[in-house]
Specification:
363 residues; Arc Repressor Mutant, subunit A; Nucleotidyltransferase, domain 5; five-stranded mixed beta sheet
Length: 363
Amino acid sequence: MTEAVQRQTNRRYIYQYLYNNSQPATSEELAEALSLGLPAVERSLAGLLEEGMISTAEGGTYVIAPQGRVALGVFLRDDQAQLLAIDICAQELGFRELSIPFSHTPGYYQKILQCLEEFIDSCGLDRDRLLGIGIVIPAVIDQAAGRLVMSPTLDLWDIPLEEIYCHFSRYPVFIENSPNSSGYAACWANREKSSAIYLSLDRGVGGAILQGDQQYMGDHGRSGEFGHMRLVPNGRLCSCGRRGCVEAYCSTSRLSDDLGITLDEFFTRLQGGDGEAAAVWEEYRGHLTDTLANLRVCFDCDIVLGGELSPHLEGLLPELYWDLGEKTLFEGDGFFLQLDRFGSHSVCAGTALRFIEDFLQTY
């Protein structure tokens, strides 16, 4: 191993140790923990300080500098776009919603890029420290073939991903679907768990199968499309063109768009004792807990509930637990259900976290 490679290896060990332990450490403590010579540790610390990757703390200790690297997530929806910036420690630096209806045109993507540049400036981010931009689309995506297979909510069918990539080429970019992105965020937040199922509830319904800190993607990268499991034979028409899918019953549109109100307005009415809202919620809850119970029986692991709906469910968990206790085969309670740590921002967070994880593995 050359001297230059050894220096970079030492830096990586020290940086990852500080990152994973989340506690300040002195140079002496680092030398002992990593079995490195003190002079080598001090040289590495000096280099990390110069790069802005770490900073000094009280008592001559060293800590991670959160904005040493940053990443962005962009969620392109039918009626708006969401922008999120996070630092290397997955802390939110800024969030913005843009009322820009989706259009698969150069003008639309140029507008999104312009707003991204303005967002970067407003957050005070250093572009030299930007790891990349993750773009999320509510779609079925075949990564191996480089194609977007279908996105009923955006009216996109069988297009090359390059038609989107090309508009953002000034930065490293990754494109994925919303359930996989949210699922990755759940993996990040639940690394101590051996496995879990992620169910995302937005206008579209999807999910991910999580195995430790990895996702099971399936043979074609399309696993976790729980929104298109058949829930009600010959039931409501789904956006995919089939009838009775989970998405036709558990989409947030059932609580908002179908009633001509926003999701916030629906839950305000529900909490206020509105009878119509209570009846709609009872029907919705029944279909949701049927879906959750089926997933529990199939996968026998915890279920993380995320998406646009999750921030509204904290106070409603007891009734969901009760319903699930009645419907699941092996449990008398529904405590296997938990809410997404990143809430309604999980879609953007998950795709940004992919760049952070890649950096941590390769720095």
